[in-house]
Design a protein that fits this description.
By secondary structure, this protein is an alpha+beta fold. The chain has 8 helices and 8 strands, in the order ααααββββαββαββαα. It folds into 4 domains: 90 residues, Helix Hairpins; 59 residues, SH3 type barrels (Roll), CATH 2.30.30; 76 residues, Alpha-Beta Plaits, CATH 3.30.70.100; 48 residues, no CATH class. The chain has a 5-stranded antiparallel beta sheet with strand order 4-3-2-1-5.
Length: 336
Amino acid sequence: MLPQPQDTTANDVPEQIDVNPGAILEKIDSWVDGLIRLVPNILVGIVVLFIFIFVARFVARAFERRTADKNRENLGRVAGGFIKWVIYLFGFLIAATIVVPTLNPGDLIAGLGVSSVAIGFAFKDILQNWLAGLLILLRQPFNIGDQIVVNGYEGTVERIETRATIINLYNNERAIVPNSDVYTNAVRVKTANKLIRSEYDVGVGYGDDIHQATDVIRKAVRKVDGVDREKNIDVLTWDLAASWVAIRVRWWTDSQRANVVQVHDRVLTAIKLALDEAKIDMPYETHVNLLHDQTEAVDGDRSQQREGWPVPREGEAPKPRWKVTEAAKDDSDESA
């Protein structure tokens, strides 16, 4: 028969700290006994947890391989990581209930639900970027390798991570744009289609034959290497400017940035050489400034007013208004 524990409260001295080594040892002994009783549960819980870890990694890798076959490696990496952590959490809950049978998973989930509000506020930006990245990968407004413009950054999409979209700029710099910015702002996908249209305004002189000019430009652009032969080359009279007639030239090229820039250079060079060979003027911008002297007697008379030009060498120069006014006054006094 086991000895009954002694009542230590009877020997408790008020207003003093009582140290009872026997009570301490008894408490530690009860803890050790409880731990020993839980050892089988702990071992089973650890085994179950490792099984869930193995299953989670297997499912994540299988999902990544499946998406890789469809050239969507980024989606497999992001979504596979999410699936893996969901299985991890579920396995942890199962293992916890095995170790502590009195633990109610519903209460634990309710506690996690309350704490998730605080976690959501603390990691709002991280969760927002992660969700935006997942939606981008699911909807695919652009693909890896596409050339896009977003928030003033223009370059090639290198990869899409859980937090940001990595863009390799044309000058070989790297821009890390948060996924939430990419998802909520306007994005120009410049390589969405195989061909892209470029345009440029060319000015020719008013004295030149406009039909000859448009014909020369069209023939010059058609011969340029890299300009699409199936699409039409538009050469349109676009504006009657102050110093020239503006002709807008439109052509189609491959949508890759390097090709667009190189063909643009060749097109402008060909237009310049062709117009020079055809003796068609490409005038400079001209400004004419007229200085209007409003003190002259003939102010408003376009046939006599000199409009700021030098005083004529012959004949009478225009008189200031005040002299004309005095002369008129003198004449009226004499006649009176």
